[in-house]
Amino acid sequence: MTQRAxxxxxxxxxxxxxxxxxxxxxxxxxxxxxxTGIYEPDHTTADEHGFRRDVADxxxxxxxxxxRYPGGNFVSNYNWEDGVxxxxxxxxxxxxxxxxxxxxTIGTDEFLQWAEREGIEPMMAVNLGTRGVAAAAxxxxxxxxxxxxxxxxxxxxxxxxxxxxxxLWCLGNEMDGPWQIGHKDAHEYGKLAAEAxxxxxxxxxxxxxxxxxxxxxxxxTFGEWEQTVLSYxxxxxxxxxxxxxxxxxxxxxxxxxxxxxxxxxxxxxVVSSADAVGARKRSDKAITISFDEWNVWYLESRFPGEAxxxxxxxxxxxxxxxxxxxxxxxxxxxxxxxxxxxxRVPVACLAQLVNVIAPIMTEPGGEAWKQPTFFPFxxxxxxxxxxxxxxxxxxxxxxTKRHGDVPTVTAAATWDETDxxxxxxxxxxxAEPVDVTISHLGASIVLTAGLEVTAxxxxxxxxxxxxxxxxxKHVRVIDAxxxxxxxxGSTVVTLAPESWTAFEGTAARA
Length: 510
Known about the structure:
Elements: E1 3-8, E2 14-17, E3 24-26, H1 53-62, E4 66-69, E5 93-95, E6 100-102, H2 108-118, E7 121-126, H3 133-144, H4 150-157, E8 168-171, H5 186-203, E9 208-211, H6 224-233, E10 239-246, H7 253-257, H8 259-280, E11 288-296, H9 325-340, E12 347-350, E13 360-362, E14 368-370, H10 374-383, E15 387-389, E16 392-394, E17 397-400, E18 404-407, E19 409-416, E20 421-428, E21 434-439, E22 443-454, H11 464-474, E23 475-478, E24 483-485, E25 491-495, E26 499-509
GO biological process, one term: L-arabinose metabolic process
InterPro entries: Alpha-L-AF_C, ASD1_cat, GH, Glyco_hydro_b
Keywords: Carbohydrate metabolism, Glycosidase, Hydrolase
């Protein structure tokens, strides 16, 4: 029997504007994300700077608006000064985070110029693990400073006259995590972040700062960490970070399909923590969230842990998860959740862009291809614009081991008032079809096209052939959505089992 759900939609019920930075990604010096990922000078598609054109083209197709760099765990042991200037003068070093010999070929200038050529906004991170205030302020000066100061003049001497104008800066990375080089408790980190942020804004008052939040909702210090860190940094920072990864554990498919419920709770709890600090400070300022690491990552079941990695060189294959149709459905559902919090989540980064838990894969000297997770992200990035709508979803729930009761259907939508374009995203988490009634009294909607991603039941296999096979079987372009119009004017669509479906169309006030 087909299940039923209802979605109430009206263009006047709004969450907030959709910031284009919500469709960010992440490039860390980890595994093959940089070397043989975005950069491979001997590749047949390499440009004059050594960056792969095929990867850049897929990055544009993916719709990535912003890329975070250089880490991640990597940044907490990184001396940025070692990665600027003539490449032949740079020395390789041991990256303690991922136990890799870093060749130091790509650094700040190379990355920022790649991002500039590709029209992608950069998001930079500073090292607050093994370094501190002076190095952070110096990097801002190097990147954004005008001629006539020490570090800006060094940039100019290295061949870059014009400042890069980087707006968004992370004050370290996952400093709550014991795995982090230079790990600190909340008081230590909060004081350091406040002083570093103050110095960085004295160099360039226009920048936005991201304080490190919890690395996971399941950290022992979660909640207390946010409140303590923000008690020191509230008046200095603009955002607090969130990181979350999801995976299917022990065959618990139901919990995996309900992962976005956990993401939703995580966001709500961090917002509550931030607002509590603001209330105590009697501040009208609202701290927003930079969800600058999120994805499906088989962290517990496939990754041996950083400490168990052998010391390697030559861009080792680390954390190259292969994704399935099921993973793609979950990624789409996580994207729904981010859109539903657009008022408090203006920044997000799918971690990562290439090879490392990524939607894009490459073979050294060979082709680049799309993983199944590529498709829902690209569809959302292309069509979600304007304002995120505040939908009301009435759907049955089912019980999961990890997340308790979760709804069978989730929904998100955006509306661009300038041209009336509507994007509607629906997830069916159940193994049966669901009829969804879209109630839009007071508004007229027309659905004209779409994309359906369905889950599979077979193990994912590495390589472009299997990825193409999944795309052929489980990613379907909808040229003319099959809809039923009820007597009251509402629209009914049928969702396939375990699916994420994106509809395009128009909406207008009736």
